[in-house]
Each structure stands twice: as C-alpha cells, then as structure tokens.
Amino acid sequence: MTYQLVQTYFASVFFVLVTWLCFLISPDMFEVRVGIAMSTLLTLTAMFASVRDETPKVSYVKAIDIWMVSSIIFIFTALGGFTITAWIKRGLERMQAPKDDDKLSLEILDYKKRRPLTDMQTKKILRKYRRVAIVIEQYGLYILSLAYVIFNIIYWTWLMKESNYLQWSVNSTFNKINE
C-alpha cells in the first residue's frame, strides 16, 4: 500500500492540483492554461496505463482504477471549464466587434422563427454567456476543490472500510515473530 500511496496516489493528487492552479492564470492566456492541463492529463493517462500494467489482471474494477479515472475526470473537467470560458469570451468579442456600418459582425438568428434577433435579445444572450464565463472563472477552482475533497472523504472511507485495513493485525507466521 505504501508504494501505491507514494507512486500513484500522491503523484495524481499533485497533477490534479497543478491543473487547478491554472485557474489562477489569466483567462487571456488560454493556450498556457490548456497546455498545462493537457500535459497533466496526458501524464496521468500514461501513469494510469503503467499502474494497470503493474497490477494483477482481474475481471473486476480495482480501487486504484476508480482513483485514477476520477483524477482524469477532475483534470478533464478543469480543461472543459477553460475551453468553455475561452469559447464564450472569443464569441463575445466577435459579436461585439463592429463592422464598417457599426452593426454586429456575427448575426444571431432566432432558430424558431429563422430571423435575426433584435438588439435587446442579442444583449440578453450576451449577458447570459458572460455570466456563465464569470461563474466558471470565479468559482470553478472552489467548486472543483470542494468536489475533490468530498470525493476523497468518500473514497478513503470506503477503501479503509472495505479493505479492513483498520482491523489489520500482526500475523506471527508472516512476520516471523516467534523465531
């Protein structure tokens, strides 16, 4: 268990934390954020493949598999948040950039009626998207951190309970105590 703690669990926690530190980088540096997140995602994926090769091949899901997949999901969620924020910001910039005749450069259509939206409807949509981007940027780190702490509490409680790790006792035959 000590080997897996140091080589797998602690390392994967650090990769998740490094990805979340990208929330502290300016949203304008999208390429840097995605580059760091993708690097940690690929490294964690390679580490997962290595762990799978080192552990016995069984037909059921092991606890370490759950841990590694969950870590990948947390990193992928942060990456998705970065991407959504960048997509919204770039879309808003394109929509607000005036053309030569001082109108919107990207015409938004009302898909139900197949006609361009009015300025009031367009501004309403812009405000909604802007709010989504602000929520992701301001609260994404906190939401993911809270979810990760809750996941860790549930995971480690389950692991210790199911493995009977806390009820472990010294076996005199295994540990050669009576020699």
Automatic annotation (TrEMBL):
GO terms for molecular function: chloride channel activity; extracellular ligand-gated monoatomic ion channel activity; ligand-gated monoatomic anion channel activity; transmembrane signaling receptor activity. It holds the Pfam family Neur_chan_memb. It comes from the Eukaryota. The keyword Disulfide bond does not apply. One of its GO terms (cellular component) is membrane. Gene3D superfamilies: Neurotransmitter-gated ion-channel transmembrane domain (1.20.58.390). Keywords: Membrane, Receptor, Transmembrane, Transmembrane helix. Residues 8-82 form the Neurotransmitter-gated ion-channel transmembrane domain. The chain crosses the membrane at residues 6-25, 32-51, 66-88, 139-158. This is Glycine receptor subunit alphaZ1. It comes from Folsomia candida.
